Amino acid sequence: MTITNLKEESYFSILNELPDFWSSSADTMRPYHHIMFAKYFPEVSFVAIEHQKIIGYLYAILSANQQKTFIHLIAVRKGYYRKKIATVLLNKLESTLSHLFPKCRQIEAYCIKENRLGIAFFSNRGFLQQGILQTQEKEAILFRKPVKNCCTK
Ligand SMILES: CC(C)(COP(=O)(O)OP(=O)(O)OC[C@H]1O[C@@H](n2cnc3c(N)ncnc32)[C@H](O)[C@@H]1OP(=O)(O)O)[C@@H](O)C(=O)NCCC(=O)NCCS
């Protein structure tokens, strides 16, 4: 498996294969897949590729002052779950932040309360539940994790 920064080409491939990542929620999730991640945030957005197939992706945004990163989406292709692909994508984000964006202190993510796998993932990868957010339709849990500075590890 290789991890690369998100390019527009990969962005469109993912868009064409959303049911392979989100099952019956694909149509709901489609509007969340904005091209801005490929155009403006490729340094903090990644795809995992195996045998020329995208098997996972993480889209994130860096705040203007570079002190916070928000994980907007993280998804793994069906059939590839529980093989640490999301963990590798998260590790890549964390190492990128600590090396290229040393001002970044915190990673945030929201996960709707019904998303059992998402909650298990963030909880078991060092994120702390920090509150509840009322989104358009559903309640979401706010997760936060500090970024380790590469120079003080
Ligand atoms: C959430 C998701 C990204 C996890 O991807 P993954 O590659 O399967 O996750 P990993 O293999 O890296 O698992 C990391 C940890 O998450 C937790 N976890 C993942 N799947 C789990 C499951 N089915 N049951 C319990 N815990 C689980 C475990 O703690 C796991 O670590 P462990 O295997 O050492 O116990 C994947 O399930 C997915 O794509 N879901 C649909 C999209 C989604 O809901 N994304 C999150 C909101 S944006």
Overview of the molecule:
- By secondary structure, this protein is an alpha+beta fold.
- The chain has a domain at 2-104: Aminopeptidase (3-Layer(aba) Sandwich).
- The chain is 31% helix and 33% strand.
- The chain is built from six helices and seven strands.
- It has helices at residues 8-16, 18-22, 26-29, 36-40, 85-100, 116-124; strands at residues 2-5, 46-50, 53-62, 68-76, 106-112, 128-134, 139-146.
- A seven-stranded mixed sheet has the order 1-2-3-4-5-7-6, with helices on both faces.
- Strand 2 and strand 3 form a beta hairpin.
- Coenzyme A binds next to strand 4, helix 5 and helix 6.
- Residues 73-76, 81-87, 111, 115, 117-118, 120-121, 124 line the site of coenzyme A.
Strand content: 25-35%
Query: Number of helical runs?
Result: 6
Largest sheet: 7 strands, mixed
Low-confidence stretches: none
Write the layout of secondary structure elements.
Blueprint: E1 2-5, H1 8-16, H2 18-22, H3 26-29, H4 36-40, E2 46-50, E3 53-62, E4 68-76, H5 85-100, E5 106-112, H6 116-124, E6 128-134, E7 139-146
Parallel strand pairs: 4-5
Antiparallel strand pairs: 1-2, 2-3, 3-4, 5-7, 6-7
This protein binds coenzyme A.
